[in-house]
């Protein structure tokens, strides 16, 4: 895999560490799941089957230390337990390794246990009886969803791109950036190259540089996804390429390889439909909802979605209260279950460029408008009008590269784009406008400025003078005499 290709790839998520605990009475290692308001800790077996239940905390050193200090201070009988911090991707394997060293103590095993052990003393300013402890733990857990702080952002760089904190907040784009996500829409940016300025649309994200500083990453629009090279050790099969190009999702879990550590990372792969980037998400970060549009998922259905596969669901209820069926699938870029509206039901799988509904933990959001239509990429102004539901005029080319024109309108409810040729559009719109004007003249006593001076009776629907004589009347010119000159 070339260095150039490697640099274009995005690493799957590695956001958190897992807290393991050794019960000194039972001498058994478990994964921490939660702690209740009475200071009682809930644990689960540290197996891959239970990994979605593990308590995850931001792996940042300072943050983890603060969180653990809070956690430890509210724990009932904290001296009964020994805690360990391990990387989330290998939590199950590390738990098994630590358990072996607990079962058969050796000097070498003691060193391994010490390597992962977390130590903390109850904070003197916190009492276990304090009713605010649970609230503190909940707030800390929620705060762990934020990877960055506003003050970490290089706002001078943002300013050079034509962006500001106020602008990002107004567009509701700052919050996803601070959580470590890309902006959920394209932004117009300008890059000063010295002698010239490059203006383009791009998604932005924040990343941590090797020096620890937060940098702004620009994700420009690519002509097409790069599926011809290996992606973190994975070579795309013909079936992989077909699925990614048709549905945006590969449809299976594969082991990607961390190029720095050699670690295997079970992940799903999708296409960023706004930029055509190839995006991977580790399976440990997949969250499947219990219910989708009124349909409760059973364990088998959840497992299908966990494996990145498409799932056909019937009997879902739309926001308008109508029943519908569709294929759903987890998208690695969006990080939620999306709808795939297919053109045929032969195999009940998605075969189109889909309009997606924001589903997951914040389900039932409006459909996402596509950036391109029949190969035509909309500019920033067109796209903003289009996604707002306005009708826009476009110039397109057919399969033989012959130009044609028309009007397109995006339907947020169905997620579909409606196209009309100019004749169809005028036939639909102009009669409606004519009727509206005529109603205003006849029923509301309003004046049609284009014909107000015409003395002859107007025909139904007439909006302007029909001949030279009526035009002269409208212009207040004397009509030409047809009599003979005496």
Automatic annotation (TrEMBL):
One Pfam family recorded for the sequence = DUF4099
> What residue spans carry the Polar residues bias annotation?
437-464
List compositional bias (Basic and acidic residues) regions by residue number. 465-478
From which domain of life does this come? Bacteria
Q: Where is the DUF3945 domain?
A: 289-342, 374-421
Q: Where is this region: Disordered?
A: 121-143, 348-370, 430-486
Q: Which ranges are annotated Low complexity under compositional bias?
A: 130-143, 348-367
- Sequence ranges assigned to domain DUF4099 in this UniProt record: 148-229
Can you say what this protein is called? DUF3945 domain-containing protein
Q: What is the source species?
A: Flavobacterium akiainvivens
